[in-house]
Amino acid sequence: MRMLAVIQRIQRQKDSRSSAFTLIEIMVVVGLIGIFLVVGIPAFVMMREKADLERSVDYLLTACATARTQAILSGKPHDLIFNSVDRTLSVVPATVEMTENDMLESTDENGPTAPVPQRTVWRFPEEVSLEVNALTEDEDGTVFQCRFYPNAICDDFEMVLSDSSGEYSIILEATTGQPMVTNLSDR
Question: DSSP character for 127?
Answer without folding.
Answer: T
